[in-house]
Each structure stands twice: as C-alpha cells, then as structure tokens.
Amino acid sequence: MKNRYATVGLGAVLAFATALPAAAEPVDDALVIDGQTMTVRTAAPEGHPFDEVLSGWLFREAETRELEADSFQNPGMLYVDLGAEIWNTVDGTMGKSCATCHDDAADTMKGIAANYPKWDADAKRPINIELQIDKCRVENMGAEAYKFDAADQKALTTYIKHQSLGTPVAVDLSQGELQTWWDRGKDIYYTRTGQLNFACASCHEANSGQRIRADHLSQGQANGFPTYRLKQANMVSLHNRFRGCIRDTRAEFPKAFSDELMALEVYVTWRGTGLSVETPAVRQ
Amino acid sequence: MATPKPRVKLPKTASAGEIITIKTLISHQMESGQRKDKNGDPIPRQIINKFSCEFNGKPVFSCDIDPAISANPYFEFSAKVAESGTFKFSWVDDDGSVYEHEAGIEVK
Amino acid sequence: MSINRRQALGLAAGAVAFAAAGLPGRPAWATPEETEKRIAEFTGGKTPETGRLTLTAPEIAENGNTVPISIEVESAMEGDDVVEQVMILAEGNPNPDVAIFNFSEASGIAAATTRMRLARTQNVIAVAKMKDGSTFIDKKEVKVTIGGCGG
C-alpha cells in the first residue's frame, strides 16, 4: 500500500489517477437537518453548463454526510455558537455590538446571506458577508476590519450564513455592475493556470464525478461555506478554499477579497443557484 | 484560542429506570504533540485528557483520552436514570483548566 | 511561470514524502508488538475472547483526521455482569493509545461513540474488561484515503 502510493503519488498529482475506480456517481440521498429538507439537487439556471446543480454533500462518504445532517454532532455548530457570542458582544469605539442595530439574528438575518454577493454601490464592487461585516464594523461600530480568516471573522460569517440554512442561493446579477463581474468570474473559471495547467472547470466541470486520487470531485459549489473541513478540523472560508484550489494547480494565488476572487465568488455562487445554503456544511 | 465551549444534548425528562442517550461536544484543537510549526519546531501537546459525567455525584461514564482523539472531541454514551437530578460534565485540559457543564433531568 | 530548480525539486520531493507518509517528518509508527503489549497490560496477560464486544468503524475514512467509531458490549450492566472498561487502540498510529472508556452500572448500556485520528490505513482494536475478569476483543481495518486536493 505504502509503496504503491510512493510510486503512484507524484504521477497522480500530475494526472488524474487510474489506480482507483474512476467514475463514482454522486449518491441519491436526502439531506434533512432538524426536520428541514435541504435542496441538494435542482435544475440549473439558464446558461449553466450542467442540467442539474448538485451540492457537494452528495459526493461525500456516508459518515461525512451523516455528520452534516446531525446539527448537534456537526462540529461547525461550535462555531455557530461562537458567532452568536460575537454577535452580542460590544466592540469598537461606538459601544455597539451587531445586536445593537440588528437585534436577533434569527429574525433579521434570516435568508439574507443566500442573496450574497451583492453590489456595493459605495465601493463600486461586489460585497460578500465577510466584507459586509467589516464595513459594518468600521463604519457603524468604530471597530477594525477583521484580518482575513481571523477566528472571529470565520465564526461570525458562519453564524450569519447559518441564519439562511435551507434558503435557496439566488444572486441578483441585475444589481449595479454585478453582471460584468460575473463575466470576469466566468473567464477566470475557465482559464487554465499553474504548472498543472488546470482551470476550475478542469476538475469541477469536465471531471466532476470522477476521482482525483481518492478525492471524489464535486461541482465545487459555494453554498456550504464557511465549511467545516475534516482535514483542518476547523472552519474553512470560501476564499481560503479558492486559494487552496489554485495553489494545488501550482499557480500563484490571488489575495483574499481581491478583484479576481470576488469575481470568482460572484460566478461560482451563481453556479449553485437554487441549492440550499448549508452553512456550516461538513466536507472532507 | 477562545475558551472551549461545551455542547451537551440529553432529554429534559425521562421515566424511572429509562436509559437515555447523552451527546457531548467541546471546541478544542487537541494539539497532538506530533506536529511541527513553520520553523520545524515541535508544537507542544495540548489536549483534553479526561472527560467525565456524573449524576447526582455518582460516576456514570468517563474517558481517559490520548492525542488520537479528534479535534473538537465528541462523546456519546448512555445513562440509566432512576431519579430526578443533575448531570455534571467535566473536561480536563492538559494546562490544568477544567471546563464544566450541568444539565438537569426530571423523572416522571 | 517562474520557478527555480530548487523549488521544483522541493515540490517533487514533498509530493512523494506526502504520499508515502501522510506528513513529512513523522516519528516512527507504533508496532503491532507495542499494541500486543498494551492489550496484555490491560487484560493482565489474558488472551481476550471474541464475541459480546462490537466495534463499529467505517471501511473507508474520507479523512483520517475525523473517523467515527462506536463500541458496544452485551451486558446486563448490573450484579457481576458489568463492563468496567473498554480500551481503544490504533496499531498504525505514532502511538497506539486512543482512549479508555470507563463504565458503571449507572451507564445502563456499555456503549460509546467518539471520533478519532488515523494516520494511515490500519487496524482499530477495542478490548473490553468485565467485572468478573473476562475480556473481549474486536478489530476493524479502516482504510484511510489520501485525497487529491483534500490531502
């Protein structure tokens, strides 16, 4: 076993592995969280390369799927709890917490994150939940913007997105110049980069459902982020995952929240139109 | 790291002699002592080394833990409840901290 | 694409080391002998029997960092028929010890579930010790996959 990996290892990184059964269909299973059925499979929007969009949950092994389905066992819920604490904690010079203005997130944030990214008319660029939190902190709380992937940023983003659990993803591309950013995101999605010469589409479109070594390639949907990843045993943000994916093609990866990655977020989120927000999803 | 926060799930009521299921989860990195930092220096071990559950002062279940238990340790076990009372849960950290949680149950 | 020779070699070597051992610079693995020794210490030298104890673990773990395992021992959990302890071992980890579950009559059922780390494909072993001194064993092989990008 060990020897086989040693010899196959490098080759498999460079090309799709043949050592394991190649095709493996996503499972036909229902994701029910606390009695609420998630949309994990739905008709793709017009102009989408697939007929059906599929949640990454369908590509995971039974144990991983069960972990997400149990809202007590799901370790991502620890970060939802932490996010709730942050929501109610005063920070910054103006003596305010998120709750000071937004009251109970269960009411005020319900379904909100399913419509992000949105157009930020002030900044004239798309805004996601992380940047919206920062904008609020700087402008309304007198607090500092979070450093990318700070523990509090991940927990608060997870908490806010979790308030949309089950709500279908729907980005309104008619806002501002969002359509232009979608076009740019699409370009990036199909542009091959890195020593391995992979585009996002190489794995998540052309080879979705196949295996790259032992990984079952999903459609690369964004609807479960931030996601509890078993590998890190921690929450992983969407831009962290983007950067990780691009790094794995052995390319230089853009900064979090850069124009490139914001455009990619707009486009990739749209590719999951109609899927339920699953935050915190559980992935390998 | 923020102070580890426990999550505990058990029924609020039970009938006398009923066997209930208890689920517990706590946020903790469970640093194994096997990893190295960016400079190649070993990261010292820091784990939760003991979990225990008592009911009205009597032991129900406990676990001696090694670094092979995953981050954010999860334990699920059973308890036979004869009377109303309080479950007391505790997690002992390598650094000496003890994280505690209590939950009552009413026997009808 | 600018990449010098040293970086290229580093990447190649890293990929091979990663594929072979999971992480570079790991200490030596535990040996089956060490695991046998732990079992002997636990049982007081007795050879544990099979039956009564069931260990449940996935055949394939999607990521070795978080592998769900459950044990259950058939027992009345009263009188002399009480399970005192169940020890979990992983014979292919850097250290075979995983956990020891301590039960009591108040447990009602000798069953427990947790999540554990497996450094590679290996046997997970559970050994139960009863109040009357009898001991039981169960073993499951768990295959730990190495992801393409999941790593």
Q: Could you characterize what this model shows?
A:
- The complex is a heterotrimer of chains A (284), B (108) and C (151).
- By secondary structure, chain A is of the alpha+beta class.
- Chain A contains 11 helices and 11 strands.
- Chain A is globular and about 55 Å long.
- In chain A, 42% of the residues are buried.
- Chain B is mainly β.
- Helix content of chain B is 0%, strand content 54%.
- Chain B has strands at 6-9, 13-14, 18-26, 48-55, 58-65, 74-81, 85-93, 98-107.
- In chain B, strands 2-8-7-4-5 form a 5-stranded mixed sheet, with no helix packed on it. In chain B, strands 1-3-6 form a 3-stranded antiparallel sheet, with no helix packed on it.
- The radius of gyration of chain B is 16 Å and the shape is elongated.
- By secondary structure, chain C is an alpha+beta fold.
- Chain C has one domain (28-144): Sandwich (Immunoglobulin-like).
- In chain C, the strands form 2 sheets. In chain C, strands 2-8-7-4-5 form a 5-stranded mixed sheet, covered by helices on one side. A 3-stranded antiparallel sheet of chain C has the order 1-3-6, with no helix packed on it.
- In chain C, strand 4 and strand 5 (97-103) form a beta hairpin.
- Chains in contact: A-B, A-C, B-C.
- Chain A binds chain C through residues 1-2, 5-6, 8-10, 12-13, 17, 60-64, 67, 75, 194-195, 203, 211-215, 217, 229-231, 233, 244-245, 248, 250-251, 283-284, and chain C through 1, 3, 11-12, 15-16, 18-20, 58, 60-63, 65-68, 120-121, 145-151.
Q: Find the biggest chain interface.
A: A-C, 37 and 27 residues
Helix count from the secondary structure assignment of chain C: 2
Radius of gyration of chain C: 19 Å
Strand ordering within the main sheet of chain A: 10-9-11
Question: What is the structure about, briefly put?
Answer:
Chain C: Residues 40-149 form the Ig-like SoxY domain. Chain A has 284 residues and is of the alpha+beta class.
List the keywords:
heterotrimer, A: 284 residues, alpha+beta, Cytochrome Bc1 Complex, Chain D, domain 2, 2 domains, three-stranded mixed sheet, two-stranded antiparallel ribbon, 11 strands, globular, C: 151 residues, Immunoglobulin-like, five-stranded mixed sheet, three-stranded antiparallel sheet, 19% helix, disordered N terminus, signal (chain C), Sulphur_oxidation_SoxY (chain C), SoxY (chain C), Thiosulfate oxidation carrier protein SoxY (chain C)
